[in-house]
Amino acid sequence: MLTTISWIALVIGIVSFIIIAFDVYKHPQMMTIMNIIWPINGWFFGPFAIWTYFKWGRLKAKDSNQEDERQQSAKIFVSASHCAGGCTFGDIVGVPIVALTGMTIAGSTLFAHYLVEFILAYLFGIIFQFLAIYPMQQNKHKFHAFKSAIKADTWSVVTFQIGMFGWMAVVHYLLFSNPPTPVEPTFWFMMQIAMILGFLVSYPANWWLIQKGIKEAM
After folding, report:
1. The pTM is what?
2. Containing domain of residue 113, as a range?
């Protein structure tokens, strides 16, 4: 039953990815990196990502000019989505690296996933943030935009990974006697859940960063 549910969730995620990617291709975002972020979010958020994309992300979305509390929440959501996209990309790249190398730390595959995926999630998170910031700071040196990206996204990435890694620990130690591997659909379904939880944990961090003026609302 769980395998069937996993396949259904993965198919929904892939279809959501394709729907958003196709629309982004026809209606490119003003901020180029979001052309990648929105489809990635479709993979783990599914139909909810489609709804948020057409409501808040697509150019000329109907609420784009509303400056009220809902719109502020939307800006924080998009900012958190930006972080989630970079982290998710890094995590997905990291999984096959650990699987193909057979890497372990202290005899644990989970700890190897933690190390590799955190490094890659942080790297891609900062790169994605840099690609968002630099076009707005072209009158300044690239290094300034890079420092701004680190300042804006470090805490966001860390909190995302905390949420994600917490769920991975639950999966590894509590839910399965033999945890699923990357060749099984259940593994990737658990990863989809991990991404959602990572997003939820990182949302308050993004709210705080934006409120303090450390990070620009998107």
Report:
1. 0.87
2. 71-211
